[in-house]
Amino acid sequence: MYRTNLKHHLVSACALLLSFSFLFAQDNYKLKYDNSLVYAGIEVGSKGVKMSLLEVGKDAQISGAFNILKDTSVNTDFISFSQPTSLATLNGLSNLYGTALKDYNIPSNRIFTVVSSGVKMQAEKENKTNWVNNLVDSFRLKINEPKRQVEVVDVLQEARLSHLGIVPISKRHATFLIDIGSGNAKGGYFPIDDNINDFKLFQLNWGTKSTANAAEKKCDEFDKTLANYNRQLYKVLVAAESSELIFAVNSSGAYNLNDYIAFSGGIAWAAATLLQPEQIDNSVVVVSYEDVMKLGEQLYSNYSSLSDTALVKNIDRNLDKKAIAKEIKRVHGVFDQRSLMAGTGLLLKIMRQFKSIYESKGFFLVKNGQVGWVSAYVDQSVVK
User: Fold this and answer.
1) Would you give the end-to-end CA distance of the chain in angstroms?
2) Cβ neighbours of 31 (radius 10 Å)
3) Residues 175, 260: contact at Cβ < 8 Å?
4) Closest listed residue to residue 274, CA positions, set 305, 316, 317
5) What is the spatial distance between Cα 65 and Cα 52, in angstroms, rounded to a whole number?
6) What's the pLDDT at 378?
7) What is the pLDDT of residues 52-93, one digit of tens each?
8) CA–CA distance, 11 with 61 (Å, rounded to integer)
């Protein structure tokens, strides 16, 4: 269903290709096109710092001549807003910038550095905007580029680019897309046919990591057990639902204007992989609310049943079990048990708002959309 048409939109092309590179990153790269240029996009996100290298051919906008060269990330948990995580983020950002500049010989004017909206929203919620400003200033000082642009991306811009990069043109005006990131959830839809400038925004100050952090903070210092974490997570999610989520969904007006409800982001990829590991070659899977609810229960009470060994046992022998097991291991490498519980819990709370209306169609989990907006940001800058 969700398959981007490379020839129709430059942003969509780059985003989809970069998303696939997230799954199949390579240690080395080879240029594919003649007379092409290589660009780097480096993002400070809630969970860490991410860099993507993109080759753009001379006929890119017409022919879709794009090639994803490399995708890498460093986990630093910046939104904990502590000295250790801030220093780790600064080092990760500086090191990736140095890698692009020196190891890959990409000139500084083709290296784009941004701070995600998830970081911006979490910093504003906790009155920690000074941590973001200090990071940017320290980065400029460390790389000796006092005028280096490090844009703190607006949530509307990020959500719009995500939609353009993930949803194909044929479904663009019928899809409500929600991207659940580490620090926030954002998305929306285009209410007017053939108009990509008018975008109806959905935003929520909760993401996988920020939800997990909030639950951890509520745990008594003498009781760090999983059972207590689960109790505190429930309280965090109920509070988020009553104070923000219901209003955010209702005010979006998505009920009557969208035929499809789609989710992207790391937790969407993780849930899709754990629920339907046999669909490894499909970038989108359809699930029900009940499917995700069962997953949430397994994550807490029977976590071992979601290991690569356990899940592969029930898969058809004709499928590539080695590749499937590797992908499941990647999920557990990116998310620990508590983060999976938090992200799945948040996903369920959002789904619940649409359950009665969309249960006959199911919900779409987009696996290859984790980094779509970053490439779109780089690509729009290239077009300019």
Assistant:
1) 31
2) 12
3) yes
4) 305
5) 17
6) 63
7) 887 776 654 444 445 567 778 898 989 899 999 999 999 999
8) 9
| Average confidence (pLDDT) over 142-161 | 91
What number of CA atoms fall less than 13 Å from residue 338's CA on the CB side? Answer: 20
* Contact present, 182 and 46 (Cβ < 8 Å): yes
Residue 9 has pLDDT above 60, yes or no: no
Q: For the domain with range 170-366, which CATH number is right: 3.20.20.105, 3.30.420.150, 2.40.30.10, 3.40.50.300?
A: 3.30.420.150
Other C-beta atoms lying within 10 Å of the C-beta of residue 104: 15
The model's pTM is 0.73
Structural tokens at position 55: 């080759």
Domain boundaries, the chain: 10-155+372-383, 170-366
Q: Give the integer Cα–Cα distance in Å for 11 and 64.
A: 10
Nearest to 4 by CA among 375, 327, 279: 375
Strand partners for 67: 55
10-155+372-383 has which fold? Nucleotidyltransferase; domain 5 (3.30.420)
Nearest-angstrom CA–CA distance, 34 and 22: 24
Would you state the structure tokens that stand for residue 342, as one six-digit string? 């938090």
User: DSSP of 174-221, one letter per residue?
Assistant: GEEEEEE-SS-EEEEE--STT-SS--EEEEES--HHHHHHHHHHHS-T
Amino acid (one-letter) located at 303? Y
H-only helix segments in 105-200 = 117-125, 129-143, 155-166
SS3 65: coil
- Checking if the pLDDT of 346 tops 70, the result is yes
Distance CA 187, CA 210 (A): 17
d(CA 89, CA 85): 6
Token pair 């499928």 in the structure block, residue? 319
